[in-house]
Write a structure and sequence with these properties.
- The complex is a heterodimer of chains A (815) and B (63).
- Chain A is mostly helical and 815 residues long.
- Chain A folds into five domains: 2-149, 3-Layer(aba) Sandwich (Rossmann fold); 155-210, no CATH class; 218-386, Tetratricopeptide repeat domain (Serine Threonine Protein Phosphatase 5, Tetratricopeptide repeat), CATH 1.25.40.10; 395-403 and 414-620, Serine Threonine Protein Phosphatase 5, Tetratricopeptide repeat, CATH 1.25.40; 633-766, no CATH class.
- Chain A has 44 helices and twelve strands.
- Chain A is globular.
- With 63 residues, chain B is mainly alpha-helical.
- Chain B has three helices and two strands; from the N terminus they run αββαα.
- Chain B has helices at 3-13, 28-47, 58-62; strands at 18-19, 22-25.
- Chain B has a two-stranded antiparallel sheet.
- Classes of the chains: A mainly alpha (815), B mainly alpha (63).
- Chain A binds chain B through residues 46-48, 50-51, 197-198, 202-208, 210-216, 218-219, 221-223, 225-226, 228, 231, 234-235, 237-239, 265-267, 269-273, 294, 297, and chain B through 1-3, 5-7, 9-16, 18-31, 33-34, 37-38.
């Protein structure tokens, strides 16, 4: 039997497989049969997609998502981003077949696709338009061409109906030259069945002989009925341009959502003149032209139209292409003519007054909801999140960002790049508000998929990850991230990255290098760019404040007062200003002082440091007054005593933990019980005294009963406090690793087990998806946590596929 | 990019083939929908009432 023989051969193949000969030699039938037996994502690269990396990415994402119960990959991302995501999720997806059908072998995608074999995927390429595989593919794949795919006579006899005699079968087989499809078609005809069905990545097709010529307007209508808006608009442009204006109402947003604005630009640029200047067509010509960087043709037509028409939507779009002051005037005129989701969004973005701008953006979200257009809702909410972050309203920004992401994850909008921006904005807002639970995984996943194909977004995500590293007290990791981005950035991005690099260098105590970077970016900043100048002043001022050089307060005041900087940068300037001036709080502008007073301790730690210099500044802002800060839940146990940080040896850490857990003081016997495992001799009185002498080299500890002689803070106690008040997200965030995992002291072991179980139970009870995912990741193979995470996650949350895969794997291993 | 350049590039990269002003369709689902639309159009034509002059609307009467 031909099909089972080749399907079995494909399943056995150790290399990727290239099929030549297309339909004639049965390639799509083989892929379809393989799809019945294995998980297989099949996509097609037609003439339209071959030149467009985003369109290729969309086809790949659609095919992979179709094999999953919930979508994993977003739209509007270049194929390299999708390949990064496939590598990232390989343990959940592989083994999976990826099958691509194409007329010719475009460079890039197919070769990159073959690399996925090293990540557990199986590859199949149906190269239907080529007589031979190009060398780049042939060297890395097993090629099956006409010689291998032709049917033997016995196979043709099995394929054809028994009603046909042997000589008839032999005649058909000879006429067909052993080709699968003509033999199948002859059988179909002999049985009097209708046109032969040809499987394809896009759904069943008919053969070329059975294809129909259809009036374009009718075909456009049919495609529109099926929601195939991208195809419908393209066909309308080519064959029924009178339908384009009406079709654009739905198809314009679809092109935008799928990241196909350059294609839309090509389509609308080719429209006959009589259809090219209606208001809606002009609007989308401008949106597409803006994305394609080619506004030359359309702006004159738009301005001619706007000279005699109010055209609020078109006017609002035009506002986005103008300099800020002129754009603001256009946006104002547009909103006066009509308060719509679009006009309010543009006016809100451009309004110079923060409060008015935010109110307009909130109204724009409501207007979009009332119109029922989900894309507009997400666009406007995204702009609101960005503006709230810029103004330092991080708590509200986080709420709006979470809600916006929920809309993406419910599948109401699928534009991947916009989703990644919201992920980044949410990351910043959550760091500034101290909500770190589950954040690392989300940001790292986003960064991995953006890396290599979306450079600006990847740089933004690296910056946010660096802030997270600072928040979690890993300054070297933060420095590594920012340093690489800084070195790779162009001149006009140096200031944007440089102030962050300076922040990291100061944290690790490399003032000399920080000074060099601040000087570099001051020289490189454009003289007429107020934003770059303000950032350079911020960097110089930060270095000056730490090194104690003169002029720092002037630079920092300039940064704090700059209207070009966002709140995060102005707050950073304000914190270093307080350090430089030692009591300069009354000189801060009221809005900055208010935001500083509200900033979470984690935000303070990210925006200023090192801790040994900033203890007094933070305390003056209402921070903790403790002079002794113990961190037991870090890979290295540390103490910060009066601003000086040191690592604690294991035994000292065990004693410190015993004392921290007994704030009322711990006696000698109780300490002995805490430290000595069963069966071992307890410490003698002299041994305990000697041990305490070693402890006192690091920590101020009293005589018996032992307690700290200064106010102390310990992360273990803070975690317990979070649990007592049901703040599970904060508790999980605090639980960076098990308590002193190498210690066998019975008091430590008991506390370690109790702490973990109490945290587990609190998280399971909370049903908080972020907390469940984060703790499940940290604890590894905990089936109950993974199962609860899978139940709590939204149906389109990308983590759901991961959680379900883990549950399946753990269930299998336990059974 | 002017209109002619755009048109040429579109023709080279489109998934659609036009023959004598009509488009070649191979997709079964689209062909089924085309057949449905044609049938609906035919029904509308057959069922259209003989009198095609519109009755005056209330607005027209009032006017």
């Amino acid at each position: 039997m031909w099909l089972p023989r080749h399907v079995a051969a494909l399943q056995r193949a150790e290399e990727p497989v290239v099929l030549l000969g297309g339909e004639e030699y049965g390639a799509p039938y083989l892929i379809d049969a393989l799809r019945q037996k294995s998980r297989l994502a099949w996509f097609e690269l037609g003439p339209r997609t071959r030149q467009d990396p985003v369109a290729q990415g969309n086809e790949l994402a659609r095919a992979v998502n179709a094999t999953l119960p919930t979508p994993l990959l977003g739209m509007a991302l270049p194929y390299r981003t999708q390949l990064s995501a496939l590598r990232l999720y390989n343990s959940e997806l592989a083994p999976m077949w990826l099958a691509a059908t194409t007329d010719s072998a475009p460079s890039g995608l197919l070769e990159d696709l073959l690399d996925l074999r090293h990540h557990g995927y199986r590859l199949l390429i149906d190269l239907r338009g080529e007589a031979a595989a190009p060398p780049a593919l042939a060297e890395r794949a097993q090629v099956l061409g006409p010689a291998e795919l032709s049917l033997q006579l016995s196979e043709a006899q099995n394929l054809l109906p028994r009603a046909l005699s042997s000589p008839e079968v032999e005649r058909i087989w000879l006429e067909a030259g052993g080709r699968f499809q003509p033999i199948l078609a002859a059988g179909n005809a002999a049985l009097g069945l209708g046109p032969l069905s040809v499987p394809s990545a896009l759904g069943d097709q008919v053969t070329e002989q059975d294809a129909e010529l259809v009036e374009p307007s009718l075909a456009v209508q049919a495609l529109r009925r099926h929601g195939e808006l991208v195809d419908a608009l393209e066909l309308a442009v080519i064959g029924a341009p009178e339908l384009v204006n009406d079709l654009l109402r739905q198809a314009g947003p679809r092109y935008q959502e799928e990241g196909l604005l350059e294609r839309l630009h090509l389509l609308l640029s080719s429209l006959p003149e009589e259809y090219a200047c209606t208001e809606r067509v002009l609007e989308w010509r401008m949106v597409a032209g803006f994305a394609a960087g080619d506004l030359a043709q359309v702006l004159a037509d738009v301005d001619t139209h706007l000279a005699v028409h109010t055209a609020p939507a078109l006017r609002a779009r035009r506002a986005g292409t103008l300099r800020r002051e002129q754009g603001f005037e256009y946006a104002r005129q547009a909103v006066e003519a009509q308060r719509s989701a679009l006009t309010l969004w543009q006016y809100g973005r451009l309004h110079p007054d923060p409060d008015t701008g935010l109110d307009l953006l909130r109204e724009s979200v409501q207007a979009a909801e009332e119109m029922g257009n989900q894309y507009d809702v997400v666009r406007n909410a995204g702009a609101l999140v960005a503006r709230l972050s810029q103004e330092g309203e991080f708590t509200e920004a986080a709420s709006w960002a979470r809600w916006t992401l929920d809309m993406f994850d419910r599948g109401e909008v699928s534009e991947g790049t916009r989703r990644l921006r919201v992920v980044n904005d949410l990351g910043v807002a959550r760091i500034m508000t101290g909500d770190l639970v589950g954040l690392r995984r989300v940001l790292e996943d986003a960064q991995v998929v953006a890396e290599g194909s979306l450079p600006v977004l990847a740089a933004l995500l690296r910056s946010t990850l660096a802030w997270l590293e600072l928040a979690e007290q890993r300054p070297q990791a933060a420095l590594d991230l920012i340093s690489a981005t800084y070195q790779a950035s162009g001149r006009n991005w140096r200031a944007r990255q440089g102030y962050q690099l300076v922040r990291c260098l100061l944290e690790i105590g490399n003032g000399a290098e920080a000074q060099r970077v601040a000087e570099d970016i001051s020289r490189l900043a454009s003289a007429d760019d107020a934003y770059e100048q303000a950032l350079a002043a911020l960097a110089r001022g930060m270095v000056g404040a730490v090194l104690g050089t003169s002029g720092a307060d002037d630079d920092l005041q300039a940064a704090v007062l700059s209207t070009d900087l966002v709140a995060e940068q102005r707050l950073m300037g304000a914190l270093y200003f307080l350090l430089a001036t030692d009591g300069g709080a009354p000189l801060l502008p009221p809005d900055v002082a208010r935001l500083l007073g509200q900033l979470h301790p984690t935000g303070l730690r990210v925006l200023s440091g090192p801790e040994r210099l900033f203890g007094a500044v933070w305390a003056s802002l209402g921070g903790r007054a403790a002079t002794l800060r113990l961190r037991f839940l870090n890979p290295e146990v540390t103490v910060v005593n009066d601003g000086v940080e040191q690592k604690l040896p294991q035994r000292v850490a065990e004693v410190a933990l015993a004392i921290a857990l007994h704030p009322e003081g711990i006696g000698r016997d109780a300490l002995n019980d805490f430290l000595t495992p069963d069966g071992q001799a307890p410490f003698t009185a002299g041994g305990v005294r000697g041990m305490l002498t070693r402890v006192r080299r690091h920590l101020p500890v009293s005589d018996v009963p032992y307690r700290f002689e200064v106010p102390a803070f310990a992360d273990v106690l803070e975690l317990r406090e979070h649990l007592a008040h049901r703040r599970v997200r904060e508790a999980v965030s605090q639980y960076r690793q098990p308590l002193l995992p190498l210690s066998e002291a019975p008091g430590v072991v008991e506390e370690r087990e109790r702490l973990e179980e109490e945290l587990r139970q609190a998280v399971l009870l909370s049903r908080d998806p972020d907390a469940l995912c984060e703790l499940a990741e940290r604890l590894g193979d905990d089936l109950e946590l993974w199962a609860s995470a899978a139940e709590a996650l939204g149906p389109n949350d990308p983590r759901l596929a991961v959680a379900r895969a883990r549950v399946a794997r753990l269930e299998e291993s336990y059974s | 990019m002017n209109r002619e350049q755009a048109r040429r590039r579109l023709e080279q990269t489109s998934n659609f083939t036009l023959v004598g002003g009509r488009v070649l369709i191979t997709d079964r689902r689209t062909l089924a929908m085309v057949a449905e639309l044609r049938a609906a159009e035919k029904r509308r034509y057959v069922e259209r009432p003989a009198q095609t002059r519109l009755a005056p609307t209330t607005t027209q009467t009032n006017a």
